[in-house]
Each structure stands twice: as C-alpha cells, then as structure tokens.
Amino acid sequence: MTDRTAPAALLLLLLAGMLVTCGCTGNGGEDEPVVLNVVAAGSVLGPLGEVEAAFEADHPGVDVRVEGHGSIQCIRQVTDLHRDFDVVIVADETLIPDMMYREDERTGEAYADSYTPFARNAVVVAYTPQSRYGDAITAENWYEVLSRPDVRVGFSNPMLDAAGYRALMVLLLAEEYYGEAGLFAGIAGDHCAPALTVTETGGVQRVTLPEVLEPDGTKLVIRDGSIFLLSHLESGGIDYAFEYKSVAEEHGLQYISLPPAIDLSTPVHAENYRTVEVTLGFQRFSSIGSVRTGVPVVYGVVVPAGATNPALAEEFAGYVTAMFGEGGYGWPAVY
Q1: pLDDT at 226 over 50
Q2: Sheet containing 276-279: which strands, arranged edge to edge?
Q3: Which of 155, 186, 188, 272 could form a disulfide with 147 if both were Cys (CB 3.0 to 4.6 A apart)?
Q4: DSSP characters for 229-259?
Q5: Torsions phi, psi of 230, nearest 5?
Q6: Of 28-42, 101-115, 176-190, 282-296, the least confident
Q7: Looking at residues 183-203, what average pLDDT do you find?
Q8: Per-residue model confidence as pLDDT tens digits over 321-333
Q9: DSSP states of 44-81
Q10: CA distance 325 to 316
Q11: pLDDT, average across residues 294-310
C-alpha cells in the first residue's frame, strides 16, 4: 500500500519554511530590519542622533536612517522629488502648511494635514578666535564689524534653507532697530548680483530675491545649508556666519547674542518680527508660500500622508517632541 500522506506532509513543511523565511525579511526580522527614513533640517542633526539611539534601543529590529538638508529642501524631498520619507523635521513650522497642505497629484490627497511644533531657537552671529576683529566684536558693534570691507560673512541659501531667509530678516530688523541706514545693503544686499533692494509698504520691509541668487564671493558667501558654513568658518574662509544658537553651542563656536527684538527667538517680539518679509524668487514657489514673513523660530515635525511606516513614524515623532520638550538639549521649549 502506498503512503500518500508523506508527500502532503513534506509539502506542508516546505510551505511553513517559506512563510517563516518571508516573515524575517523586510518586516523587522533577524535578517532585515524595518527601515524608518527621516529627513531633517541640518541644525537638528546633532541632538537627533540621541533621539535615534533611544528609539532604536526601544524598538529592536528598527533602523532609523536620517538625512539632512535645508528645511525647504527637506519638504521638497517629499513633495517634488517624491522620495520615501516617513518623518520630516524642519526649522520653520510655517513651511509645513505652506508646502505640504496641498494635494499630491498622484494620490489626490494632501501631503500632510497636521504637524507638531517642538522647539524654538535664536539666530546668532558665530565666529572663531581666528575671525578678523574677533577680539573686538561686541553685542553693540557687531553690525559695524560685519560691514567692514575686509570681513567675509556667510549665511545659507534662503531659497533652500530657513536659516538663510532668517539671516536676511535679522539684518532688515537690525537696520530699523539700530537706526543705521544701509546696514542691510552693506552686509548683504550690495554683495549679491543683482543687488538686493528693500521696499516698504504699510510699515513692512520687503526684500525680493532674484531667480538666481549669486553672492560676490569676496564679501559674502552663501552655502546650501547653515551647517555647510561651519567648515568655511572653522578654516578661516569666512569670518562670521549667521547660525542658530544651538549650532554655535554644539560646535563650540564663539557667538554674539543679538537683541531679542531682532533675533527671532521669542513670541514676545512676534509683532516686530512680522514687519519684515523675504520673497523667494524661485518660480517653483509661486503658488506654495513664496513670501516668508518674520516669525519666531519654531521647529516642526510631520509624518507625510504617504509614509511607508506611519505607526512607527508617529512614535518617532513622539520621541522627538518628548526629548526636545520642556527645553530638552538646552533648546527653549515651544510654550
């Protein structure tokens, strides 16, 4: 008599083996971890490393992969380049509704419909012991030092990075605050081709950037993100850089703290900040918030609608808000 149960049993064993094998790949098994892709503003990358380590320690089998860009570029990775990111972290919360609360033509859904603010920051003037006049610069004369012909100044590209348009806002606010006509032009405006002009309407100072922003390269240096200025600053390629306070402290730089009325640090001076605007000249932004208005620096974290791992992404966003909350890492809390 032929035993017909043996082949059937063998087939069941083979199928069970295949299921176990499939279960260990791409789903957090031993062979391949679940990958959580995060794109973040460069200024937050340092402390974000600690958030990543804590999250991975609590979630065995999850690999958090973080990529850094300027804040505008962070969002464009999702909305324009359609890259697969589960979490987006930017240094300007207002970019999220302006650039992500719109329909994704591929799905018919908005890229996002909510976000969470989690930390504040301040704009400072960073420098090193090798910076020209570094032994003479003070909180009272910083703008006069930066205006000197032999001093090189840097900030990030305002078309790509929030720190860049905020540097321009600080200079606009400083010109009014100190009553120094020509301060903006002397440090930045006259050193771009074409030169940046300022107009005023209803008490609001506005600077409109050209389609292509070209610094002269002798007085003014512009890089894609604020963290990319650090090597130039530390090597002596530039003397001073407009940076976030957290970045200056993290990298052990000397810095000048600016008056709260102009450093974009606090809601107390929000109305004054709103008296300056920067219009991005790049035509891609014509319908998605090309006008950036001065507001207090507040970071935001968002899980895009198309996230591959939305549940894990929401958890990770929760870690970000919890670990930065209440002034974590020395950063001011949002409220």
Answers
A1: yes
A2: 198-201, 204-208, 276-279, 291-293
A3: 186
A4: GHHHHHHTS-SEEEEEHHHHHHTT-EEEEPP
A5: -60, -45
A6: 282-296
A7: 95
A8: 999 987 888 898 8
A9: GHHHHHHHHHHHHHHSTTEEEEEEEE-HHHHHHHHHTS
A10: 14
A11: 97
Distance in angstroms between the alpha carbons of the first and the last residue of the chain:
81
- Contact indicator for 244, 91 with CB cutoff of 8 Å: yes
Q: Rg (Cα) of the chain, in Å, rounded?
A: 24
Strand partners, 214: 193
C-alpha–C-alpha distance, residues 90 and 181, integer Å: 33
159 to 24, 27, 82: CA distances (angstroms): 43, 38, 19
Written as six digits, the tokens of 282 are 């790049």
The dihedral through the CA atoms of 197, 201, 206, 212 has a sign that is negative
Closest CA to 240 of 335, 132, 102, 139: 132
Q: Which of 52, 59, 9 is nearest to 34 (CA)?
A: 59
Domains and CATH numbers, the chain: 23-120+297-330 (3.40.190.10), 123-293 (3.40.190.10)
Does residue 201 register a pLDDT over 90?
Answer: yes
- H or E stretch covering 225: none
